[in-house]
Amino acid sequence: MILLLQRVREARVDRRGEAGAPDEKLGSVGRGFLAFVCAEAGDTEETIGKAARKTARLRVFEDEAGRMNLSVKDVGGGVLAVSQFTLAADCMSGNRPSFSKGAAPEEAEKSYLRYVEALRGEGLPVETGSFGAHMLVALVNDGPATFWLKF
């Protein structure tokens, strides 16, 4: 599993409307994380649990002294979890990315949903995008602070 966590003041994800239809709001969060989630082939329950625990406990929010010392739980923040298979892209050979390390769609969706449930099990409020949909993501990155985690 690969996570790209962005510390945000706010973030929102919409599903792009078809053929001129308006966009549909899927989820939003205030202070917290925008978590881009990529399932890889072979992710296990242990891997997914570790990813959720790390998300909940990573101390990258500022304390009263301005130091990164607090977790998203400590600051009462939430998580907007958005599936993003392109994090598995291998761009080192040629000009077209290879996604062979990514999980198959059925496996990836199950892993993504298990990650979301594991975050909720950590006591975090979680909103989501729509797996496999074309989405529009808007955010205000706080820092900027962005963290790439591979499990």
Task: Briefly summarize what is shown.
Belongs to the DTD family. With 151 residues, the protein is of the alpha/beta class. Helix content is 20%, strand content 38%.
Feature tags:
about 150 residues; D-tyrosyl-trna(Tyr) Deacylase, Chain: A; six-stranded mixed beta sheet; 8 strands; about 20% helix; globular; Ser(Gly)-tRNA(Ala) hydrolase activity; Gly-tRNA(Ala) deacylase activity; RNA-binding; hydrolase
Question: What features would you describe in this structure?
Answer:
This protein has 151 residues and is of the alpha/beta class. It has one domain: D-tyrosyl-tRNA(Tyr) deacylase (D-tyrosyl-trna(Tyr) Deacylase, Chain: A, 3-Layer(bba) Sandwich), CATH 3.50.80.10. Helices cover 20% and strands 38% of the residues. Strands 1, 2, 3, 6, 7 and 8 form a 6-stranded mixed sheet that branches. Helix 1 (45-57) crosses helix 2. It starts with a strand and ends with a strand. The model has no long low-confidence stretch (mean pLDDT 96).
What is the residue-mean pLDDT, rounded to a whole number? Answer: 96
CATH-assigned fold name: D-tyrosyl-trna(Tyr) Deacylase, Chain: A
Series of H and E elements: EEEHEEEHEE
Rough shape?
globular
Percentage of β-strand residues: 35-45%
User: Could you name the ranges where pLDDT drops below 50 across 5 or more consecutive residues?
Assistant: none
What is the CATH top level name? Answer: Alpha Beta
Show the helix and strand layout.
Blueprint: E1 2-15, E2 24-29, E3 32-38, H1 45-57, E4 61-62, E5 68-70, E6 78-83, H2 105-121, E7 126-128, E8 135-150
Parallel strand pairs: 3-6, 6-7
Antiparallel strand pairs: 1-2, 1-3, 1-8, 4-5
